[in-house]
Specification:
By secondary structure, the protein is an alpha+beta fold. It is built from 33 helices and 57 strands. Strand 16 and strand 17 form a beta hairpin.
């Protein structure tokens, strides 16, 4: 549903400035490498004794060189048709050879090198065809040249002009693709559907007439050649002599035109079926599907059809017909005038655009030439544009001399007349109404010839080629408009025709559904542009600031008087008359587009992307923003009253954002295919088949100063069908209309559009509309609250009044209950709605009230059941339905349990009767409960419901006789804490509970807590046992002494406790217990010495006059302690030596063989199957420096056991973490050495003190410790110095990237920092220095 609009029109020449005199422009070509347009002019030598051809080079801005680039003078002249006498048959630029090739009808083939440049060069004639050349065509890859000479022979040449094939074009055979008769009978005997034999006879008769038909009277008799886009085939259209001509005297009936398809080697493949009235024009669609030509009907010897019928017909490669469409020319009486045009016009040529989307049909009319542009959609051919030839200055009818599509720029068309060149660029434009809601109609206008197909998508979705209604220009005006546009602020359409005629329509669209009629279009003004311009665009809008209805009309065009710049003519129309006219001269020529700005302002975008605001009242334009390149489709939006944003789509698919507040634009997408701005969002589709939705508020932040490099946010997106483009957005209907490549439509309701409208409805407190939209489009109903929580709570009464249906309220409450809101907020909303409903009508909204209770988290089922009890007493008729509803909402078994927990057996029966429970299951149980006393009954009920704490309360209420059962119940379910609270006022029973609680803790080895509980329960003996088990010897002996145990028992207890403490290496505490409570001096001294507490040991010896123990116990123990310290020191020495050597080895390997060190090359990897189905681990070093296991299974889980195993293997030799592990081990040595020095500080003074042997041992120990301290410091300096230098190097990472292991931290980043090796000297003994 798109139209073809003109984006630029550059006219290169005029009668007043042409330097070639009376020569005629006859051909053009494009140097695609440099994007330069060349054209040729030809002048016939008097008496037709030759021709002079000049080549001219164009420049930017519609200019050209004053002298020809090259000239060819030929003495050969040849004319093959009375319709045309041009001598230039082909003018072609060969990019790869960098030459121009010029082919003349006289037979000359000449070339000229592009690299020569300058002016005044001569062509070099590389060959001549003596019989002349009727037509010639280069292959798309410029490898072959195919031409037909004057003898109607087909010649194929290479790019070096060597003839590789020569054959006559008229042949009797069909070609290599001729069908083979397999014996299935003739066409007349085949099945013809329900018509049967009559259809068979009719088809036979039609075939006979087709075979006897002749050519068209408008045929120019010249053959044509057209290549397929891939260069694999070409087609030749030529006239053959008629074998069975009709009995007429007209010469055209004695010949017929046929199409012959050749392959790349010029071998005939197929010949077309007989087509009466087939004409000379032929063009093969580049995509390869169809061959286009034209066919006349309704004359003697022509096709069988209505008189005046003229079709564009299509053929397949095998020569068979494949569809057609009719030209929409005005039917005129046959005449013999008009330069041989029998019906007042004829088809001169036709050609496809390079992308195969547009078919250009060159019509030669008596009134002047036109080029019609046709496109197809949904199997319907649309006439989108009609480009008339400019009239000559003498007033004669304008005639084109050539029509050429640009070979690479698909929608660029180059037209030439005798005196000028029109370089026209067209683009696809969707003409849709952009009125703001709530008056938006989303009407889309599609040009189809003289009719404009209108479809308002807000009320109707009519698939093309159909439409809701049409606006048709009455006959004889059959030409399509040049441009159409909707008013941005009114339901109106403006139409511009090529004659600068303007029509304005008020559509009067219906906004309700169903719309019958959808609109009532009325033309309220028509007129002519005051100035003489070649108009190409129109914009019209209603002036909202005018006191009366006033329309502003802007027309963009190129002055016909040869002006150097475009102009915008602005007219003010009031009461059907033009009241004011303004003319704004622009800075560009032939390029640029007008755009509508917010606030009734006019904008213009130049050909280089600069955006201007047009102040037409002062007849000036000033820049306000810029795009980095030219954009053909642009829309504007406003952030506020003064700031504007502009979104533009370039031909390369880049989507740009510019604004009046930013000096640079932003690229939003590089693969955009279409876009629109609607409902506060920018919506665009991409070539990756996605629709994206960017809020305008976020776009505003992207245009702020300094945000050029800010990363684009992740906007919401959704998948769409391949090749979808946006037709229009309907904000009021929350829909987006997309068109598929084949032409059909698809309407979707994207979430951003729906949420935008829902948000507006919520803000306007139109809750019902918002609710219905959410329900229809499956939007979470919780948005009604989340969008404006405070406003919703304040307008809650309005919500329940608008959404008054109970089912709707239930649906809303369910959505709130399942939302992510906090349980407290859910309860607040549900309670508020419940209270409002209870005030309105409890009986009518009983189900909604029940829902409000049930959807809470957790559900308030007791309140819901209490409501049922209340209804049972006040309105029993509602109870059954209410029970059924609540059973539907909640599991019946859960309701049964809740009702049972309320101790109301009638409610339990009510729930059970409406559930699927078997009465044989619950009735005996209920009878048993009814027979019990109240307290014990509640105990049984709560126990059944597993409410053990509550059940214990019932058991207490059952009386003291149930206390033994209560104790058993407490132990069974671990209810000690609950029991203490329940019986805290009953000391006797409380102590019994504390006693069993202490046993409970003792069994679970919580000895300290058990001892406290036993003390509280008065069980001091048990408390002492618990203290002893907990090694709490201070509390134990304090309690034992208070209990008055005997001295012997106290001593025995001291021996046990001290021994236990020694076994746990708590030597100081053990020695204290030995001396204080066991009264054992020797054992106490031994314990202190084992703990390296020699000072305390000597104090005990002196205090108790046992100095003999110093030599007996302390001397040998001191040697043992020294040996233990020495062993630890030797272990540390060995570790440091090994690890220092390994560090050197690893770093040497890293420097000499980095590939092996980092695992970049591994021969084992060549045999690894990366995607194997097996889950086994490959035995290679593939996992080195990665964290992932080297398995190829698709699913892998690392268990806790595997993690522990990996942790144990961490630092293993050859692994990635080995160096890191070694360095961390060295760091730990610092702490270990400091610990040894602290231990040595305790033993060294006594080694010096005891004997000379002890002194020697002490001196040796101190020296060893000092030596190791120095070695450790040196090793730390060496290891971390090399580590720092390694970190500054660029470590190889190629192996990681090639393995797909990107994203891992680079090697070296996890190495530990250098430790501070600061050691104190206070531990040293000065007398032990060597």
């Amino acid at each position: 549903m798109r139209n073809l609009s003109i984006s630029s029109l550059i006219s290169y020449c005029s009668d007043e400035s042409k330097p070639w005199g009376d020569a005629n422009i006859t051909g053009t070509t494009v140097d695609v490498d440099n994007d330069v347009l060349y054209f040729c002019t030809e002048t016939t030598v008097p008496e037709r004794e030759g021709v002079e051809v000049n080549i001219w080079r164009t420049a930017a801005g519609g200019k050209f060189l004053e002298s020809p680039t090259a000239t060819l003078k030929s003495t050969l002249y040849q004319t093959f048709s009375s319709y045309a006498s041009n001598q230039v048959v082909s003018f072609k630029c060969i990019p790869e050879k960098r030459i121009f090739c010029l082919i003349l009808a006289g037979g000359d083939i000449a070339t000229f090198s592009i690299e020569d440049g300058g002016v005044g060069h001569e062509f070099e004639v590389v060959g001549t065809v003596d019989s002349g050349i009727k037509c010639a065509q280069w292959s798309p890859d410029d490898e072959f040249l195919v031409l037909i000479n004057g003898n109607d022979e087909l010649l194929q040449m290479t790019r070096e002009f060597d003839v590789v094939s020569e054959s006559p074009i008229r042949r009797s055979d069909f070609g290599q693709d001729e069908s083979v008769n397999v014996g299935w009978g003739s066409k007349s005997t085949q099945f013809h559907g329900s018509l049967g034999k009559q259809a068979a006879a009719a088809s036979t008769e039609q075939a006979s007439k087709a075979a006897s038909g002749g050519s068209s009277p408008d045929d120019d008799t010249i053959p044509r050649i057209s290549w397929r886009g891939d260069g694999a085939f070409f087609v030749v259209s030529s006239l053959d002599k008629h074998a069975n001509p009709p009995p007429t005297s007209e010469p055209y009936t004695h010949r017929k035109r046929a199409l012959r398809v050749y392959d790349r080697s010029a071998v005939l493949q197929a010949t077309s079926e007989p087509v009466p009235g087939l004409e000379h024009a032929v063009s093969w669609r580049p995509s390869g599907s169809l061959i286009a030509s034209s066919q006349r009907f309704g004359f003697a010897g022509g096709g069988q059809g209505k008189k005046g019928r003229h079709d564009v017909v299509f053929f397949e490669r095998n020569g068979l017909r494949h569809g057609e469409f009719g030209l929409r020319e005005e039917l005129k009486e046959e005449n013999a005038d008009g330069e041989g045009r029998k019906w007042g016009y004829r088809v001169r040529e036709m050609s496809w655009s390079s992308d195969s989307n547009v078919l250009a049909v060159w019509l030669e009319r008596d009134s002047g030439d036109v080029v019609q542009l046709w496109t197809i959609g949904n199997y319907h051919w649309y006439l989108k544009q009609e480009l008339p030839s400019p009239a000559s200055t003498e007033g004669a009818s304008g005639r084109y001399t050539s029509v050429m599509w640009h070979p690479e720029d698909a929608l660029r068309l180059i037209l030439t007349t005798n005196t000028q060149i029109d370089d026209i660029k067209i683009y696809w434009e969707t003409c849709d109404s952009t009125i703001n809601p709530p008056n938006d109609t989303a009407t889309v206008a599609v040009v189809d010839g003289s009719s404009i197909l209108m479809t308002p998508f807000r009320t109707q979705n009519v698939p093309p080629p159909m439409s809701s209604y049409k606006i048709t220009r009455p006959a004889p005006h059959l030409s399509p408009p040049v441009h159409i546009s909707f008013a941005p602020n009114s339901d109106a359409l403006s139409i511009l025709y090529s004659s600068s005629h303007i029509e304005l329509y008020k559509l009067n669209s219906t906004l309700v559904t169903p719309a019958n009629p959808p609109a009532n279009p009325i033309r309220f003004w028509e007129g002519q542009v005051p100035d003489t311009i070649r108009a190409r665009q129109i914009l019209a809008w209603l002036d909202a600031a005018a006191p009366e209805e006033e329309w502003i009309i802007g027309v963009l065009g190129l002055p016909e008087d040869g002006g150097k710049h475009d102009i915008i003519v602005v007219m003010a129309v009031r009461d059907g008359a033009i009241t004011d006219t303004y003319e704004v001269t622009l800075t560009d020529r032939g390029r640029g587009r007008m755009i509508s700005l917010k606030g009734g302002k006019l904008g213009w975008v130049s050909g280089n992307g600069e955006i201007f605001q047009v102040d037409f009242e002062n007849e000036m334009a000033f820049p306000i923003a810029t795009f980095p390149e030219s954009c053909t489709f642009i829309q504007s939006a406003s952030f506020n009253e003064t700031d504007h944003a502009f979104v533009g789509l370039s031909n390369s698919g880049k989507l740009y954002l510019a604004s009046t507040t930013a000096t640079q634009s932003r690229t939003l997408s590089t693969n955009c295919s279409s876009f629109t701005i609607s409902a506060g969002s920018l919506i665009y589709t991409t070539t990756s088949h996605e629709a994206r939705f960017a809020p305008l508020a976020e776009l505003e932040s992207l245009t702020q100063v300094g945000e050029e490099e800010k990363k684009l946010p992740e906007w919401e997106k959704r998948r769409v069908e391949r090749g979808s483009v946006i037709v229009t957005a309907v904000p009021s209907a929350m829909s987006l209309v997309l068109q598929m490549p084949r032409g059909n439509l698809e309407t979707i309701n994207p979430r951003p559009l729906v949420l935008s409208v829902v948000g507006q409805d919520i803000e306007s407190r139109n809750y019902r509309k918002a609710f219905l939209a959410c329900r229809k489009h499956r939007i979470d109903l919780n948005i009604l609250v989340d969008h404006d929580p405070e406003g919703f709570m304040a307008s809650l009464s309005s919500f329940t009044e608008q959404v008054h249906e109970g089912d709707y309220i239930n649906l809303f409450l369910t959505g709130v209950g399942q939302s992510s809101q906090s349980p407290e907020r859910v309860a607040k909303i549900c309670d508020a709605i419940r209270e409002d409903l209870e005030k309105r009508d409890l009986k009518s909204y009983v189900n909604s009230i029940l829902t409000a209770h049930v959807v809470k988290r957790p559900p308030d089922l007791e309140a819901a059941l209490a409501l049922l009890l209340k209804l049972r007493d006040t309105d029993p008729t509602l109870v059954d339905e209410a029970v059924k509803y609540v059973v539907f909402l909640v599991d019946a078994d859960k309701l049964f349990d809740v009702a049972l927990g309320m101790y109301d057996f009638s409610l339990v029966l009510l729930i059970a009767q409406h559930s699927q429970k078997d009465p044989r299951e619950y009735l005996p149980f209920l009878r048993e409960l009814r027979a019990l006393e109240s307290g014990y009954q509640r105990f049984r009920i709560d126990g059944h419901l597993k409410k053990y704490g509550k059940a214990l309360i019932g058991l207490k209420d059952a009386g003291p006789e149930k206390f033994e059962e209560a104790l058993a119940y407490i132990e069974k379910h671990g209810l000690h804490d609950e029991a203490i609270k329940i019986w805290k006022e009953d000391d006797e029973h409380l102590k019994m509970i504390l006693n069993i609680y202490g046993d409970y803790l003792f069994e679970r080895r919580a000895f300290s807590n058990a001892a406290l509980v036993f003390l509280k329960a008065g069980k001091n003996q048990k408390a002492m046992i618990a203290y002893e088990k907990a090694y709490a010897w201070r509390e134990l002996f304090a309690l034992a002494i208070c209990e008055g145990i005997s001295a012997d028992e106290l001593q025995q207890m001291g021996d046990r406790v001290a021994e236990d403490l020694s076994s746990r290496k708590r030597y100081f505490e053990s020695g204290t217990v030995y001396i204080d409570y066991a009264k054992d001096v020797s054992s106490s001294v031994a314990a202190f010495s084992q703990g390296n507490e020699f000072a305390e040991a000597e104090r005990i010896c002196a205090l108790h006059s046992r100095l003999d123990l110093i030599e007996i116990i302390l001397h040998p123990t001191a040697v043992e302690i020294r040996e233990l310290i020495g062993d630890d020191l030797q272990e540390m020495k060995d570790q440091l030596e090994k690890q220092s050597a390994r560090i050197v080895e690893l770093r040497t390997k890293k420097e000499t063989d980095p590939d092996s060190f980092f695992g970049n090359e591994d021969s084992g990897l060549h045999e690894v199957e990366m995607m194997t189905d097996a889950g086994t681990t490959v035995g290679t070093t593939f996992t080195r420096y990665t964290a992932a296991p080297s398995t190829a299974s698709k699913k892998s889980r690392v268990s806790a056991k595997t993690k522990r195993k990996l942790s144990r293997n961490r630092g293993k030799k050859g692994t990635a973490e080995e160096e890191e592990y070694i360095m961390q081990s060295i760091v730990k040595l610092v702490g270990r050495l400091q610990g040894l020095q602290a231990e040595a500080s305790k033993i060294l003074p006594y080694l010096l003190k005891y004997s000379s042997d002890h002194e020697n041992e002490g001196r040796e120990l101190q020296k060893d410790l000092i030596d190791f301290e120095e070695k450790l410091k040196s090793a730390i300096n060496d290891v971390w110095a090399e580590s720092t230098s390694d970190d500054k190097q660029d470590l190889p990472n190629e192996g990681l990237e090639e393995s797909g292991l990107t994203g891992r931290k680079k090697y070296g980043t996890n190495l530990p920092p250098k430790p501070e090796a600061v050691f104190s000297n206070e531990w040293r003994v000065s007398l032990l220095r060597s």
